[in-house]
Amino acid sequence: GTLCEHVECFSFLSNDSSVCAGHGLCVGEDHCACSQGYTGSACEFPICNGVPSNDTNAVCDGRGNCSNPDVCECSQGHSGQFCNLNVCFGIFSNETSTACSGFGNCTSPDQCSCVDGFAGEECQHSYCFGV
User: Domain named EGF-like: which ranges (predicted)?
Assistant: First the structure.
């Protein structure tokens, strides 16, 4: 301000609602103290499950985007709070009694790995002695 009572953080005055991306306080020149759930020099990155949103290979299990603290927007074929579940033919991978007909594991979206004795896209066919 005119009497130097407001410090600047990344071109925003400390009393501007947009300072520190609206997710922190400007506590010194270009130094933001981020609110819980945000990180980055200007508090511009939300954190999901302890991983900053700019770590795109790790945040939301590498299967989605972190839009707000602990809020993942999962890519198609993935689900769960942190996108850690695959979806096989509309069923979450942790629903072991129904995913892959209960006779396999949902290893990636719409991909079942069947137990011995079962085959088919959803492990829906049983066979005996390789028949």
Answer: 5-44, 92-124
